[in-house]
Amino acid sequence: MSMLLEIRRLSVALPAGSEREFAVQDVSIAVPRGQTVCVVGESGSGKSVTANAVMRLLQKNVLRVADGEIFFEGRDLLKLDAAAMRTLRRLAHGYDFPGAHDCAESGHDGGGSDR
Ligand SMILES: Nc1ncnc2c1ncn2[C@@H]1O[C@H](COP(=O)(O)OP(=O)(O)OP(=O)(O)O)[C@@H](O)[C@H]1O
Ligand SMILES: [Mg+2]
């Protein structure tokens, strides 16, 4: 079955000196087209960080994708340029994320996420 979304062996690093090296380590999730996948886990287990990594909305200079790949409709999201990523977010959600214009890639240095 073709996958709509595939997260392959994703690791997201925390800043140096944090109590742990990774916020998310070696996570793989496949979402088949037309299906819903629920991610369940205790508070702090990395659900939001994983989702934000998919949307490329990790807090800039704090959280960093250290390893892994994320494919959406066959496209490697971690390699898309910022404009293509913004278009994809709008298509996926029907709106632009709050603060998404206040970022380095849109020409402002808002210190926001790696958008
Ligand atoms: N901006 C950040 N700076 C430093 N650490 C962070 C940041 N965001 C998340 N973390 C850390 O990453 C880990 C995963 O957090 P995350 O928010 O993804 O958990 P969660 O599963 O969504 O929890 P909850 O169920 O409470 O929403 C936690 O240890 C958290 O402290
Ligand atoms: Mg959360």
- Class by SSE composition: alpha+beta
Task: State the end-to-end distance.
Answer: 30 Å
The count of DSSP E runs of length 2 or more, i.e. the number of strands, is 4
Largest sheet: 4 strands, antiparallel
What percent of residues are in strands? 25-35%
List of distinct ligands in this structure: adenosine-5'-triphosphate, magnesium ion
Name the average pLDDT. 85
Number of helices: 2
Percent helix range: 10-25%
- Choose one word for the global shape: globular
Instruction: Note poorly predicted spans.
Output: 103-111
Order of helices and strands: EEHEEH
The whole-angstrom Rg is 14 Å
Describe, in plain words, how this protein is organized in 3D.
The chain has 115 residues and is of the alpha+beta class. The protein has a domain at 3-80. It contains two helices and four strands, in the order ββαββα. It has helices spanning 47-54, 82-93, and strands spanning 3-13, 22-32, 64-72, 75-76. Strands 2-1-3-4 form a four-stranded antiparallel beta sheet, covered by helices on one side. A hairpin with an 8-residue loop joins strand 1 (3-13) and strand 2 (22-32). The structure holds adenosine-5'-triphosphate and magnesium ion. Residues 47-48 line the site of magnesium ion (MG).
Question: How is this fold's topology laid out?
Answer:
Blueprint: E1 3-13, E2 22-32, H1 47-54, E3 64-72, E4 75-76, H2 82-93
Antiparallel strand pairs: 1-2, 1-3, 3-4
The structure holds adenosine-5'-triphosphate and magnesium ion.
Adenosine-5'-triphosphate binds at residues 14, 23, 41, 43-49, 59, 62-63.
